[in-house]
Write a structure and sequence with these properties.
This protein has about 280 residues and is α/β, with parallel strands linked by helices. It has 3 domains: about 5-115, Cobalt-precorrin-4 Transmethylase, domain 1; about 115-220, 2-Layer Sandwich (Methyltransferase, Cobalt-precorrin-4 Transmethylase, Domain 2), CATH 3.30.950; about 235-275. It has helices spanning about 20-25, 35-45, 60-75, 95-105, 115-125, 140-155, 165-180, 200-210, 235-245, 250-260, 265-275; strands at about 5-10, 30-35, 55, 80, 105-110, 130-135, 155-160, 185-190, 195-200, 220. It has a 5-stranded parallel beta sheet, with helices on both faces. The protein is elongated, with a radius of gyration of 22 Å. It starts with a strand and ends with a helix. Bound molecules: S-adenosylmethionine.
Length: about 280
Amino acid sequence: MTGTLVLVATPIGNLGDLAPRAVATMQGSSLILCEDTRHSGKLLAHAGVSGVRLAVCNEHTEIERARDVLSLLDTGATVALITDAGTPGISDPGSRLVRAVIDAGHAISAVPGPAAFLMALVVSGFDTNRFVFEGFLPRSGRERTTRLAAIAAEQRTTVMYEAPHRIERTVADLADVCGSQRAVAIARELTKIYESVWRGSLDAAVAHIGSTAPRGEYVIVLDGAPPRGEISDDEIRAALHVALEGHSRKDAVATVVGQLEVPKRRVYDLALAVDRK
Ligand code: SAM
């Protein structure tokens, strides 16, 4: 028999955003998968959903849980997947289970609803026609440097999630790679009592965040890079300066070539000169 896994979006702060169809779907399911039974138990009590079994499916148990879910789906059941907040699969568990369910030939559906990145994008004031969602940036090392370099060159609006204790550093890193005048919107506590959207240059954002004790949940929305004209040697040197930090010349050259789309030979010659200083 064919069963259905339904990804059900839940509020990102304001319980009033829980859709009637989300409630009906959860009530009509044989099993509700969630990241934390205590956290989701409160939501279900608020929504009046009762008598449905809850089981944990988080980033550590997602694969293991897939086996039980597939056996249940084989009986033709409907299983709902929710996370602590927002849309499952968006910087949250979900995508690996979805893959397993598709591979086993069962159906997937969703009850769409809140997602912090989408709300932040539409209130940012930046171009919403073409955008990139980066989720959480890698915390350190080459992965972070490479990702930051790609974001700096990206001409579409870029949306990122960040934890409060890392937001100051991430905004400062963005100012380093994108230039201090690139526009940014910092959306905080969306749909909650202290919802705010701060807009300004990256430079001003560094000062703004530094002047507060970051608390709550944040989304960073970065305006796209201006269309590329002729790239000057100074721009290449500035990109090399960032890329060379803690990396070999070879890696830094590769990063900058990818970032600025300029010939390798030109970047390599400038890297030799930067190194000699
Ligand atoms: N699945 C969620 C969604 O659909 O947005 C995202 C879950 S992810 C683990 C949590 C991150 O989402 C937070 O660190 C923050 O960056 C962002 N976020 C979630 N709720 C938010 C809110 N109310 N206001 C601002 N950002 C929020």
